[in-house]
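Is this the right way to post structure tokens for a design question? Let me know if I should format differently. Anyway, here goes:
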């Protein structure tokens, strides 16, 4: 049921019409009878990993002939015997693999590579099994997404992609397995090379730049080479919108150095890694006329706060492409500022554990995007979730749950938590993502990402999700734009050290704002939380007034440096929207310059 991954088309090619048609036709086929496709996907997973220790634990000594079993009976048996689990439940098994146990624990084929999650959600990185299947599905979903993008935004063959992509350092576990972020594994894989060779659309930067590990030096070289090839650039992309915003923010400060390098055909002395310097010097040559033209554009852009930077510097770029949902939604506003009228296209929906859905309508604004589930990538279940309307009960319980349902039985308008069974050895694994079914493509559901379940602000009987926080911060920060200021980034914390506990929201702001305005912002946020538990707790003073902390410029870059110093890659970095990480809180409190307490609720 898998499409031929070897014809991968990672970023769209106006001349690849035949291949585009083939993979779109394939997806239409597998999305037409998803109940059957999903059962066959589960059958393949169970056949592939038949007899592994983890499945034996639940199936016992039953000698099951998965291939001959009735599909419905097999599905029912699997979901009745194998329990729902979190990463914590599987961690002992994965740790044994990391420590060198080569017996068939989770998969029959030996796992030689482990992916690291970003660690920004729960404050620590997790090991996730990574196999060749992981790279193949990455190539496959990129090819499918590109086929849909090329219908709306066709690109020239033999063009270039300005990709702000970053590898982190890989390391060996105690058992000798290679470990690193999923993006690092992919950028080093055969599939990444195939993507470029097949599409004839090449990234501006060579492998030596991508794999450097120092994100500041890598960003500088991405920008330098992107401008060197400025007429050839067809699109600009990165894994997360944050990385693109970070890159253009750096450009505001470094454009003069980059222009000097283009003029002289040289590389700044700040680029210290020898292999990267040589790789870039092998590509560039002096272009004084281009350097002068870029200088003139940048001098003009400074007067408009860099509005429309992208189309002015890369006149042939068709769109900017990245993950812009969830915690990335905050950066869409700044990205629109840099892009002017250039379209923003939301990238695919996935996790370190598995790819989940593809964006079939690239013309939709990122806030409205949905993702059609890929029914051959994993076996999917969905736990129906119901919000608690009353403010009674435990504040740690965010939703009321019902029994999981298969992919073919989800309903439009219902919220669910995703459960995965993967080819890489995760069985009925709770992903922690909350999604809403917004419609269907044929029979496969189209999902709208809502929030992460574990990102909760909780003090008493209140329960506010990442999405609730996002809406409150958007409302509170609207006052900033009236005073020619902008919110650079934010995070939050439930302060429980002193009673009554209260919410603390940290803001980094660009521009000068009077204290009276910030007081209003603080009050507006406090009054904007609509969760019944929060409202009644504030009225009875069992939750104290919200606290707004303004941090120094550059504080959130220090948080980025902290995560990268602990093994994260910029390609995978997401600012945690709610944190209990002591080191993070220490950084935030150390660089807090002003504090305000809400006067809402009297």
């Amino acid at each position: 049921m898998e499409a031929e991954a070897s014809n991968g088309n990672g970023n769209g090619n106006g001349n690849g019409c035949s291949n585009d048609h083939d993979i779109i036709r394939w997806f239409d086929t597998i999305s037409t009878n998803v109940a059957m496709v999903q059962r066959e996907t589960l059958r393949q997973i169970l056949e592939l990993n038949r007899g592994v220790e983890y499945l034996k634990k639940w199936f016992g000594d039953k000698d099951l002939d998965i291939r001959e079993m009735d599909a419905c009976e097999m599905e029912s048996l699997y979901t009745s015997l194998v329990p729902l689990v979190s990463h914590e439940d599987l961690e002992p098994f994965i740790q044994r693999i990391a420590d060198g146990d080569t017996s068939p624990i989770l998969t029959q084929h030996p796992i030689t590579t482990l992916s690291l999650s970003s660690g920004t959600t729960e404050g620590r990185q997790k090991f996730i099994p990574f196999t060749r299947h992981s790279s193949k599905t990455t190539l496959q979903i990129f090819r499918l997404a590109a086929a849909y993008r090329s219908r709306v935004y066709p690109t020239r063959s033999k063009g270039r992609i300005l990709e702000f992509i970053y590898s982190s350092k890989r390391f060996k576990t105690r058992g000798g397995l290679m470990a690193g972020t999923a993006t690092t594994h992919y950028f080093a894989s055969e599939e990444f090379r195939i993507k470029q060779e097949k599409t004839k659309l090449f990234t501006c930067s060579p492998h030596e730049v991508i794999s450097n590990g120092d994100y500041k030096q890598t960003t500088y070289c991405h920008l330098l080479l992107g401008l060197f090839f400025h007429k050839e650039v067809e699109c600009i992309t990165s894994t997360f919108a944050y990385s693109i915003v970070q890159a253009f923010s750096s450009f505001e400060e470094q454009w003069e150095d980059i222009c000097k390098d283009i003029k002289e055909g040289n590389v700044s002395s700040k680029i210290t890694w020898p292999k990267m310097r040589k790789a870039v010097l092998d590509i560039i040559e002096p272009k004084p006329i281009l350097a002068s033209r870029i200088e003139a554009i940048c001098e003009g852009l400074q007067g408009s706060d860099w509005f429309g930077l992208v189309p002015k510097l890369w006149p042939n770029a068709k769109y900017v492409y990245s993950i812009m949902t969830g915690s990335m939604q905050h950066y869409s506003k700044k990205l629109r500022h840099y892009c002017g009228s250039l379209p923003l296209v939301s990238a695919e929906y996935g996790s370190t554990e598995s790819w989940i859905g593809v964006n079939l309508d690239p013309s939709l604004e990122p806030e409205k995007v949905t993702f059609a589930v890929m029914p051959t990538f994993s076996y999917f279940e969905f736990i129906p979730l119901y919000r608690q309307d009353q403010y009674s009960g435990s504040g740690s319980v965010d939703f009321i749950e019902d029994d999981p349902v298969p992919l073919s039985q989800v309903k439009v308008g219902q919220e669910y938590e995703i459960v995965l069974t993967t080819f890489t050895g995760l069985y009925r694994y709770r992903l922690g993502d909350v999604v809403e079914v917004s419609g269907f493509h044929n029979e496969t559901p189209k999902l709208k990402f809502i929030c992460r379940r574990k990102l909760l602000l909780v003090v008493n009987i209140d329960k506010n999700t990442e999405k609730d926080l996002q809406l409150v911060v958007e409302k509170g920060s609207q006052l900033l734009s009236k005073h020619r200021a902008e919110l650079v980034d934010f995070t939050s914390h439930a302060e429980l050290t002193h009673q009554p506990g209260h919410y603390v929201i940290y803001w980094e702001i660009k521009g000068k704002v009077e204290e009276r305005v910030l007081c209003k912002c603080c009050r507006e946020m406090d009054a904007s939380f609509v969760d019944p538990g929060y409202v009644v707790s504030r009225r009875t003073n069992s939750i104290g007034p919200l606290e707004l902390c303004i941090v120094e410029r550059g504080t959130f870059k220090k948080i980025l440096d902290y995560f990268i110093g602990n093994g994260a890659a910029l390609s995978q970095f997401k600012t945690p929207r709610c944190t209990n990480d002591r080191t993070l809180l220490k950084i935030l409190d150390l660089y807090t310059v002003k504090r305000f307490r809400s006067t809402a609720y009297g």
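Format looks fine. Someone answered above. Worth noting: The chain is about 40% helix and 20% strand. The longest strand covers residues 429-441.
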